[in-house]
């Protein structure tokens, strides 16, 4: 399973994540390139002519900035946005499960390891009386 994530600062506080994702763990080469901006995520895929074209992964939230995405066990993809975590079937692109922080909080950052562990950092709770 090969996933390359590169974070770059674009303008002010906007970020871009480039993640190369194979369409399944059986594929020798990556198929998808995930590019994210403030307020949206785009998926590019290699077509039969090995050219990049815009595509979509149905279970991904395209209307949100992706903080992290990667392949995980059982041919699944994970997308982390400020709104939570989405687990997607790599073959069908369908959403299998999702999690969102409680009380309207948002995920601040996310990271993954090569052994499928994920770390999320939600913001601290507001102080009492504020």
Which sequence of SSEs, written as H and E, runs from N to C?
A: EEEEEEEEEEE
Number of strands: 11
**Largest beta sheet: what is the strand line-up?**
1-2-3-4-5
Strand content: over 45%
Radius of gyration: 15 Å
What general outline do the C-alpha atoms trace?
globular
Q: Helix fraction?
A: under 10%
For the largest beta-sheet, the strand count, sense and barrel status come to:
5 strands, antiparallel
Give the terminus-to-terminus CA distance.
46 Å
The number of helices is: 0
Average the pLDDT over all residues and give the rounded result.
77
State the secondary-structure class: mainly beta
Poorly predicted sequence stretches spanning 5 or more consecutive residues: 1-16
Write the layout of secondary structure elements.
Elements lengths: L3 E6 L5 E7 L10 E6 L2 E7 L5 E4 L10 E7 L3 E6 L2 E6 L5 E5 L9 E4 L5 E4 L9
Antiparallel strand pairs: 1-2, 2-3, 3-4, 4-5, 6-7, 7-8, 8-9, 10-11
Give a description of the structure.
By secondary structure, this protein is mostly beta strands. It has no helices and 11 strands. It has strands spanning 4-9, 15-21, 32-37, 40-46, 52-55, 66-72, 76-81, 84-89, 95-99, 109-112, 118-121. The strands form 3 sheets. A 5-stranded antiparallel sheet has the order 1-2-3-4-5, with no helix packed on it. The protein has a 4-stranded antiparallel sheet with strand order 6-7-8-9, with no helix packed on it. Strands 10-11 form a two-stranded antiparallel ribbon.
Main features:
130 residues; mainly beta; 4-stranded antiparallel sheet; 11 strands; disordered N terminus
């Amino acid at each position: 399973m090969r996933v390359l994530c590169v974070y770059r600062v674009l303008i002010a506080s906007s970020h871009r994540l480039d993640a190369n994702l194979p369409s399944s763990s059986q594929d020798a080469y990556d198929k998808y390139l995930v590019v994210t901006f403030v307020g949206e995520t785009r998926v590019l895929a290699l077509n039969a002519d090995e050219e990049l074209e815009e595509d979509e992964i149905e279970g991904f939230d395209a209307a949100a900035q992706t903080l992290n995405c990667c392949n995980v066990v059982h041919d699944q993809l994970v997308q982390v946005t400020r709104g939570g975590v989405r687990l997607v079937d790599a073959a069908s692109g369908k959403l299998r499960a999702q999690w969102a922080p409680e009380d309207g909080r948002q995920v601040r950052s996310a990271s993954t390891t090569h052994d499928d562990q994920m770390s999320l950092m939600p913001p601290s709770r507001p102080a009492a009386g504020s």
